[in-house]
């Protein structure tokens, strides 16, 4: 940005400050945030590089201030800031233990066994959808079957797994409950 353009934008910001603040305030709903965004706009004009051309000073300044206000809003209202994420990345995971690791291995082995027991077409469709990420239409085209059949086979495969693991879950819960009763 040339020094002449930088100077012109700053002069325009000074001359039209009240008007720009009111327009921005209507857009973002806060007088203080509008004023802060315009102050930040002033600062950023000073740091802008070359290659910028402006046809309408007021529109350019308002758009720049609006983007600044939106960015500021997002930073204030994000669930986790960058500092929070950095702090969380240094916390050790206390959930890892040998019992969970063993349970995960058993569950994975049971899932693989259940997949081997199901009909090949159901297994193939389930894997194509859940592992490969194909849509039902893509699966139907690949295996030269209808989308309706893909949907039915997928429902059957999921129902089979749901029933198979519901029985095992109920068995595990009953064993766990009986163990805790004998410990008491």
From TrEMBL:
GO MF entries: DNA binding; sigma factor activity
Domain called RNA polymerase sigma factor 70 region 4 type: residue spans: 110-158
Keyword annotations of the record: Sigma factor, Transcription, Transcription regulation
CDD domains: Sigma70_r4
InterPro entries: RNA_pol_sigma-70-like (IPR039425), RNA_pol_sigma-70_dom (IPR014284), RNA_pol_sigma70_r4_t2 (IPR013249), RNA_pol_sigma_r2 (IPR013325), RNA_pol_sigma_r3/r4-like (IPR013324), WH-like_DNA-bd_sf (IPR036388)
Coiled coil: none
Domain of life: Bacteria
One BP term from GO: DNA-templated transcription initiation
Family: Belongs to the sigma-70 factor family. ECF subfamily.
NCBIfam families the record matches: sigma70-ECF
PANTHER family referenced in this protein's UniProt entry, alphabetically: RNA POLYMERASE ECF-TYPE SIGMA FACTO, RNA POLYMERASE SIGMA FACTOR FECI-RELATED
Name of this chain's protein: RNA polymerase sigma factor 70 region 4 type 2 domain-containing protein
């Amino acid at each position: 940005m040339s020094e002449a353009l930088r100077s012109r934008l700053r002069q325009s910001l000074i001359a039209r400050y009240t008007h720009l603040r009111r327009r921005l305030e209507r857009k973002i709903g806060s007088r203080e945030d509008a004023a802060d965004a315009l102050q930040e706009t002033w600062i950023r004009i000073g740091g802008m590089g070359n290659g910028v051309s402006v046809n309408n000073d007021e529109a350019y300044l308002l758009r720049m201030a609006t983007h600044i206000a939106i960015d500021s809003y997002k930073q204030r209202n994000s669930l986790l800031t960058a500092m929070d994420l950095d702090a969380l990345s240094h916390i050790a995971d206390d959930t890892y233990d040998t019992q969970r690791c063993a349970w995960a291995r058993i569950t994975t082995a049971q899932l693989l066994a259940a997949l081997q027991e199901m009909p090949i077409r159901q297994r193939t469709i389930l894997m194509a959808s859940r592992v490969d990420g194909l849509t039902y239409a893509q699966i139907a085209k690949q295996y030269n079957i209808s989308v309706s059949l893909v949907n039915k086979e997928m429902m059957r495969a999921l129902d089979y797994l749901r029933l198979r693991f519901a029985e095992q879950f109920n068995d595990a819960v009953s064993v766990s409950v009986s163990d805790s009763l004998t410990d008491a």
